[in-house]
Design a protein that fits this description.
eleven-stranded antiparallel sheet, single chain, Porin, mainly beta, elongated, 209 residues
Amino acid sequence: MSAKRLAVLAVPVLVLVSSALAQVNEFSVTAGRTFVSTQTIQNPPPNDPNPNIHFGNPPSIAFNYGRLLKRHSIFGLYGELPVAIYFRMNLNTYADLIPRDVGALFATPSARLNIFSGQSVSPWVSVGGGYGRFREAPYLIWSGFNPGPTGTNTGVVQFGAGLDVWFWHRWGARFEARDFYSGTPDLNVDTGRSRQHNYYVGVGVTHRF
């Protein structure tokens, strides 16, 4: 067989192989907000008219690396690493006892199941668990220094769902909602809780490579 004919046969094969390999990995970046429900201080100070702790809904960002592990029929199983961050979630309550704000980072290795994997529109669900880190502000909400810790580690369980829409070659849009179910930051008060839901909702871009 001549070199020219060999090249003609080899090029389509190489294109197919490279195309398959190109879709093994994914990386996404989304931006959105994180939501935490109100918590109530147990045994609040006397005459406290509002013993509830209200959490702001801060701008948040999430990164995700995923790798296709197995594809069967319309399903694709991915191993993924979601990482979500919010830098400053403002807190509010009446008594000058709690930190002014908190920040958080969650990193949770997970398994993700895509439906219609490899198609232009692919909904998915995800579950996993990992590590979280809270940063408590060094100041109280009204005045003075925070007497408590300014860093708290926690275990995290992650549940998520989303939708990928591939609109151009290897680029797509991602819509995602995840619950990072973690321990609580150290707020210097007893809220009767040892864990809390951190709901992240975001939208952004995803890339196959």
